[in-house]
Specification:
This protein has about 600 residues and is α+β, with helices and mostly antiparallel strands. It contains seven helices and 38 strands. β32 and β33 form a beta hairpin. It is elongated, with a radius of gyration of 29 Å.
């Protein structure tokens, strides 16, 4: 499937034509200013030593750190740092002179992502655990945690996401010199809005397919497009536990423990509550979480899950198995993490790119601790964001326009681009398949919640029952819970998503229900009005077991005349759809 065209910050998008790509190391830093630094930006590791054999600043090939070296294999999808501020002019020259790798060659080398078969794991005493899960196939939820008292005090907005609390403006802090907190809330609180098509690239990836699958199919469980922004809560943790986030730096284990603390804070204590949920642990300026400023193994961000035994400082953390991201205060790194790659001065460019990179990788490789990772990776173990970090041209970082504002994000790898040969893109056409249905209740009453079971139900836009639109209470790729609406009738159940519609093969029967009676007592010969739903194909109405005469009826109201057969007792309406009993009792005099 080809990709849609969208412009952003002057970058072109995938045109559907084959193109050639460079190795990541040759592409790093190509969007930097000519000086390699930005006015007012002082990288946290200024004067960093280059790796052995790395290019000098005068060379045309900037070197990168190796974040997963020296026992840091838990840093999944880590964004490396650029360690040599190469001048833009020399980088352009290197792009022209370097030995380019053809798209066909990249595919032969396994550059397209393939499915790892899903992950099965039980951790932290969980009885359910994770079973054959590789992606987040339900609506995404993300909790944003500002970790450590060095954020200062809250100067605007409110924390939210716990029971009884809701968002009231973006949370801002007294010690956030570059406004990273606001940017992160705009990003995660805006995805899925404004018709943005960056998120659609994720929808081509799925689970419930064989190991090694490269392209999903209509019966697979695909990542859905967010029908609502994923941001589900914001928490500023400046507790004593959060004091671990010091300038010396929290360990990976302490950061993973913070994700578990966040899950408890937001009331997500079971594995099922975290099935499509991720936690972003954002550290404040001046801190060094998990050695992020190291000259050889430093990084801009990474993700993992809390059950990974390789996490330094103590390994796996007890509790539900949680996908989490370690997001340092990225502006502190300046050009080393991409500041100025999209905007000028672009102090937050790297932060937006790193955050979007890890968000996408968490969704498409939710539990990456296993080998081979259970989600989507290429032949070299790279995830959806890795190959496209720091690239120029098609798929380069760009400003994504959301309802919350414009935010810099990174391009993503699309297997579907270039006629299936793959490539980095900024935007994609939806890869949503039409829903399928395997189970719908035969009948129910108005106001009752029912389960609709099938596939590709994670981004359903409407469900109609007998022509009336039902309220969608919750949805996953396999099960939607909907409430039978007022106005529903016996008839067809139709489910629609962006990929199409499907009608359940059997007729749904609306059973009758009685809401109220016009009176609690009626004399023989008097008229009683019965209010409710599903009053069609009426077989009988009884009062105290005796039949009464139906004078008139419409689907939500029946008028009956009380006969001599009626006795004090229950009012029962029987239709072809079943029987309904009124609340309380009627007195007949």
């Amino acid at each position: 499937m080809g990709t849609m065209h969208q412009t952003g910050s002057g970058h072109s998008v995938d045109s559907g034509r084959p193109r050639r790509r460079l190795p990541l190391a040759a592409l790093a830093g190509v969007a930097l200013l000519a000086s390699g630094t930005l006015a007012g930006v002082s990288p946290l590791t200024s004067g960093v030593a280059t790796q052995a054999g790395a290019a000098s600043p005068a060379s045309s090939a900037p070197s990168l750190t190796v974040p997963t070296a020296d026992g840091h294999t838990f840093r999944k999808g880590a964004v490396p740092r650029i360690t040599t501020p190469a001048a833009a002019a020399s980088v352009r020259a290197s792009l022209h002179a370097s030995a380019l790798v053809s798209t066909a060659g990249l595919k032969a080398a396994g550059r397209n992502l393939t499915y790892g078969g899903g992950t099965t794991a039980t951790g932290g005493g969980q009885s359910s655990g994770i079973v054959n899960q590789g992606v987040m196939a339900g609506q995404p939820k993300l909790y944003l945690v500002f970790f450590g008292g060095q954020w200062g005090s809250i100067t605007g907005g409110t924390q939210w996401g716990t029971s009884g609390t809701s968002a009231s403006g973006d949370v801002t802090f007294s010690n956030d010199p570059n406004g990273e907190a606001t940017m992160l809330q705009k990003l995660f609180g805006g995805l899925g809005t404004n018709g943005e098509t960056w998120s659609t690239t994720l929808t081509q990836y799925c689970q419930a397919v064989p190991l090694g699958t490269e392209f999903c199919n209509p019966t697979s469980q695909n990542v859905p497009y967010p029908t609502a922004p994923p941001l589900a809560g914001v928490w500023f943790d400046d507790s004593s536990t959060a004091s671990l986030e010091t300038a010396a730096g929290a360990t990976g284990n302490q950061l993973a423990a913070e994700a578990e603390a966040a899950a408890a804070h937001f009331g997500n204590t079971t594995q099922s509550q975290n099935a499509n949920t991720q936690y972003v642990i954002a550290s404040p300026t001046g801190t060094n979480p998990d050695g992020w400023a190291n000259s050889g193994t430093g990084y801009c961000a990474y993700h993992d899950d809390t059950n990974d035994p390789a996490i330094d400082g103590g390994g796996a953390v007890a509790g539900p198995i949680l996908p989490w991201t370690n997001l340092p205060y990225v502006p502190d790194a300046g050009y080393q993490c991409g500041a100025g790659s999209v905007n000028s001065p672009g102090l937050l460019d790297g932060a937006g790119e790193a955050a979007s990179h890890e968000y996408a990788e968490t969704i498409t490789d939710a539990y990456p601790e296993t080998t081979v990772p259970g989600g989507w990776t290429d032949g070299g173990g790279n995830e959806i964001g890795d190959t496209c970090a720091y690239v120029t041209g098609a798929g380069a970082a760009f400003n994504l326009n959301l309802a919350t504002g414009s935010v810099p994000v990174q391009g993503l790898w699309s297997n579907q681009a270039n006629g299936g040969k793959g490539g980095c893109v900024q935007t994609s056409s939806p890869f949503t398949y039409a829903p399928t249905l395997t189970s719908v209740p035969a009948k129910s009453t108005v106001g009752t919640r029912i389960n609709i079971v099938g596939t590709n139900l994670g981004d359903v836009t409407s469900v109609t029952i007998g022509g009336a639109a039902a309220t969608i209470d919750s949805e996953t790729n396999l099960v939607d819970q909907v409430t039978v609406p007022t106005g529903a009738a016996t008839g067809s159940v139709v489910v629609t998503n962006p990929g199409g519609s499907v009608t359940w093969k059997k007729t749904f029967t609306l059973a009758p229900s009685i809401v109220s009676l016009s009176s609690s007592s009626v004399s023989v010969g008097g008229v009683l009005t019965i209010n409710g739903y599903g009053f069609t194909s009426i077989k009988s109405v009884t009062v105290g077991g005796g039949k009464v005469t139906v004078a008139s009826s419409i689907p939500d109201q029946i008028q009956v005349t009380i006969t001599k057969k009626a006795m004090s007792g229950s009012v029962v309406v029987t239709t072809k759809g079943g029987a309904a009993t009124a609340p309380g009792s009627l007195t007949v005099s």
